[in-house]
Amino acid sequence: QLNTPDLYQVYKNFFTIGAAVNSKTLESEKELLKKHYNSLTAENEMKFELLQPEQGNFNFANADKLVAFANENNMKLRGHTLVWHNQTTEWLFQNPDGTQVNREILLQRMEEHISTVLGRYKGQFYSWDVVNEAISDDDSEYLRKSKWLDIIGEDFIAKAFEFAHQADPNASLFYNDYNESHPNKRERIYRLVKSLLDKDVPIHGVGLQAHWNVHDPSLDDIRAAIERYASLGVQLQITEMDVSMFSWDDRRADLTQPTEEMLHLQAERYDQFFRVFREYKEVISNVTFWGANDSYTWLNDFPVRGRKNWPFVFGENGVPKESFWRIA
Ligand code: XIL
């Protein structure tokens, strides 16, 4: 691997190159991470249910390890995520007697969580996904149904940003979502971010998750999304990129290895995506992959349980794929 260029070095005049990790991959892919990436995100371990499994009982062990590794190796850190409808815990929305909490109590718990987490890591994370996936996928609806929305109301989003800004005034605060390039959802995300900016809510960026595949979305839709969000004057980050070998509707589950043709098509797509990212380097400050290499990806189980996938630019042994050479 000696003649392989370091990916983050190749991109040093464009944007930082990130990977999502967990305690296992932080160990098993240590060398690959150090060589190619200069930004890290916790795949799961900084989500609500894992940081605060019981009220007031924070578990920072894994997050601390991640922060230490990043500091030792001069890597930046993206925080993921503070307010989300998934991976929260039962107690959060409940009183001790099992009834649902009211707005005031939930806001208090939100503030407590955000100020504790951001307070502990103040100055360590350059950006935070403050609110994740609050927009509906359904065209007849604006915000996604969730306990946050139900109990607090629409301003749960603004409140989260305000609490985060109070706790770490120098961090860049992001709204993060998927299907971000889909025309209708793009407009809903735009509407949300614009309404926050109009109210002077401290929001600094939009995260495009970029859970894409070898067929979708189109480059035109991606470009349109980038331009639309950038027109609000915020920065953009590609926060969870993977390029699945399968279209969303393709539920095949019998492949144990990707074919040459699939690998080639994927490389073609990576090439095109990164050309677009480079074109918009003035607004895109980071591109993060939702994993380090094909040895582990959440797509091995999603949306088809047990199906393997190979969505990254490094293969299962960390060997650069054609996709790597095309983007490097
Ligand atoms: C995923 C993780 O990768 C999985 O391990 C976990 O089981 C579910 O969450 N959008 C997000 C990420 O914002 O937090 C999700 O991560 C993927 C979709």
TrEMBL record:
Swiss-Prot/TrEMBL keywords: Carbohydrate metabolism, Glycosidase, Hydrolase, Polysaccharide degradation, Xylan degradation
Catalytic reactions of this protein: Endohydrolysis of (1->4)-beta-D-xylosidic linkages in xylans
Superkingdom of the organism of origin: Bacteria
Domain GH10, residue spans: 1-328
SUPFAM superfamilies named in the record: (Trans)glycosidases (SSF51445)
This enzyme's EC code(s): 3.2.1.8
Coiled-coil segments on the chain, per record: none
Signal peptide, first to last residue: none
Protein name, as recorded: Beta-xylanase
